[in-house]
Design goal:
Layout (H helix, E strand, L loop, with lengths): L1 E3 L2 E6 L3 E2 L2 E2 L26 E2 L24 E2 L14 E2 L3 E13 L5 E9 L7 E2 L13 E2 L30 E2 L4 E9 L1
Parallel strand pairs: 4-11
Antiparallel strand pairs: 1-8, 2-8, 3-7, 5-6, 8-9, 9-13, 10-12
């Protein structure tokens, strides 16, 4: 009778992704101030980055999931410019994941044995959100700005009872999450 208990620990920095402008007009402001829309539904421009703007609350009951980063520094690009945020400006949140398995052999006779196996994926059930899925780059992830408002034309502008670019918006909210805790058992008879 023998037993094993191997495990795998994964610590990953977040995958970089690019923040881009949507090509539509939201009614609050035109998100493609650069005037360089590609005609493919997405503008080929980035936002400008401004510092010192107020940060919206991270939790909002009318939005899907928590706000994973501050949208306020992203402002509409100056006319006929491509924006200064640049490529791969932000990263997905980091991941810390623990997988473990337990294995036990039971000898039944000289020529047969039973193996019991228990496998635990994401043992501590850490929530591991993603804003952008690098495995599906053609999808419209939550890296696309669809609204600018306020005096600075910010993607994080919120006014009480007025223009609001955060409530109900998907920008910088979770696109999905990695696997939750999963447990599976197996039994094998070798003869």
């Amino acid at each position: 009778m023998g037993g094993k208990s191997p495990g795998v620990t994964l610590f990953q920095s977040g995958t970089p992704f690019t923040v881009i402008n949507s090509a539509g007009n939201t009614g609050i402001s035109l998100t493609d101030n650069a005037g360089v829309s590609s005609g493919l539904g997405l503008a080929a421009s980035y936002p400008d980055v401004a510092h010192g703007l107020p940060e919206p609350p991270l939790r909002n009951a009318q939005s899907f999931g928590p706000l994973l980063s501050n949208p306020s520094p992203f402002v509409a690009p100056r006319g006929l410019t491509f924006g200064d945020a640049g490529r791969n400006f932000l990263n997905n949140p980091r991941r810390l994941n623990f997988d473990m398995s337990l294995l036990k052999h039971f000898k039944l006779s000289e020529f047969s044995e039973i193996q019991f196996r228990a496998e635990f994926f994401n043992v501590f059930n850490h929530t591991q959100f993603r804003i952008y899925d690098p495995d599906n780059p053609g999808s419209s992830g939550n890296n696309i700005i669809s609204c600018y408002a306020g005096p600075a034309y910010s993607a994080g502008f919120q006014a009480s009872g007025g223009a609001d670019c955060v409530t109900g918006a998907s920008f910088l909210h979770p696109l999905n999450a990695h696997r939750p805790r999963t447990i599976q058992f197996g039994l094998k008879w070798a003869f």
